[in-house]
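hey so i finally got around to running the thing on that chain from the lab meeting. sorry it took forever, my laptop kept dying and i had to restart like 3 times. anyway pasting the input first so we r on the same page abt which one it is
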Amino acid sequence: MDKRPITGSTAPFFGDVTTAPPGGVTTWTRTSDGVRIRLGFWPGGNRGTVLLFPGRTEYLEKYGPAAKELAARGFATLTIDWRGQGLSDRLIDDRARGHVRRFADYQRDVAALLRLAETADLPRPWFLLAHSMGGCIGLRALHNGLPVRAAAFSAPMWGIRIMAPLVPLAWMLSGASRYIGRSDTYVPGSSANCYVSTEPFAGNVLTTDPEMFDFMARQVRTHPDLALGGPSLNWLHEALREMRILGRTRPPRLPALVSIGSRERVVDVPAIRHIVSRWPGGLLDHVEGARHEIMMETPAIRAAYYDRITAFFDSCRPQG
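ok and heres what got predicted. didnt touch it at all, straight out
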């Protein structure tokens, strides 16, 4: 893999399928292990910069509206395509398969994002906004000293919703796959299909807003290179291991607002409650009527959510 630095090289951005604030910049960079990742920055005022950590399967274009909402409230946004998804390097030949070698490798992506933030001297203070898998990556980054004043989590993946009798099977299958050379196999029940491009709106687990569901589906239909299917068994094993460790580790001493929709069906709500209950300065926020993707919910839910998290960030900024 080519390990030459490419920070500053312009990366494509599909503005035809999203909305984002004017003045945005998308760029390529390489991580310390040579993976090419895509980063996006949008200016937004003088109240600080939000480091937005997306979830599994996600990409910059999906968060154009989020950057617009944050800019309207005075915050710049820096976000990322994690390795193995979006337009960042896919890690195995089947680009539809969500795969990572080690969950710790995502912290190399975080380091590359921080390198850009420091080099570009992005407006301070910095804050973390992390969704789903990004919440798992983000919590680990906080333990590693991520330089933010406060964190907001949207349905963080601190546990995956799996029926209790199937949890031992998930551990066994994902672990055994590594010893028989099948760790890049799809998790049983998943496939190359991208959820929003194949599932109907009725009964979906992501949002109650049909327009936002169509927004997400239109993005991957128009630009298939953005799409990602199910995870590999190795991704599952690494995720289970990381979530177990995080659940046993005392949370950092940093203000945190953790939001969960009342109709959540993707992540494990008791696991989230457990971590927040042990978090000094951690607040649990119940979002009535929301499913998994609070930032992709109805206009009223979205507006209230962005008002709430930016007010929280403002309450945590340095005094004087």
